[in-house]
Amino acid sequence: MFNRQTHFGFDWGEFITGVALIIAAIVMFRNPGATMLALTFIFAILAIVRGIATLDGFPKLHELTGKLAWLSAVAGVLDLLLGVVFLFNLVSAMVTLAYLLAAWFLIDAIANLFNAGHLRRAGAGWFILNLVLDLFAVLVGVLLLMQPVVAAVGLVTLLAIAFVIFGLNAIVMAFARQNI
User: What is the pLDDT of residues 126-146, one digit of tens each?
Assistant: First the structure.
């Protein structure tokens, strides 16, 4: 009863998932513009849903928190407006997303640079290495802001690489389960 062994066998679901992910990655590599357009569409829909959800929760939030709830209402309206604008102007939204990606990278790099001081306790070498890497990241962030198309293609490339990795892993798992 307790020693019941089940043979897993070849996992066709994992195999098909892996192949589909790799095909999606190839399509993404071959059509980065279309991929960015699809990501922009998804972002627009998510912004609309987020705006609606935030505005829907505003009365309860206002009841619980009082005065500062208006910040959430403003954020909800901005999410909703941004989503609608992006939805009806996907090309401009793609450029905006590329700038947002670059700005995000730059802000993170600057924040890391300002917080590097604590590494002095770990040793001068670690501190200097961190400073050099953070300064390099700031430079890359500035370059991405100057070249939003590079930022957009970079985003698509990273996503496609992730799909390849997940796809290969799923295929390996499908074959490995044959021996379980």
Answer: 889 988 988 888 888 888 788
Phi/psi for 152 (5° steps) reads -65, -45
* CA–CA dist 16, 164 (Å, integer): 13
Residue 86 falls within a domain, yes or no?
A: yes
Q: How many domains does the chain have?
A: 1
pTM, two decimals, is 0.63
CB neighbour list of residue 30: distance below 8 Å, 6 or more residues apart: none
Q: Has residue 6 been placed in a domain?
A: no
Q: Is 5 a member of any domain?
A: no
The domain containing residue 110 runs over which residues?
A: 13-179
Highest mean pLDDT: which of 16-30, 35-49, 127-141? 16-30
**Residues ≥6 apart with Cβ < 8 Å to 85:** 92, 93
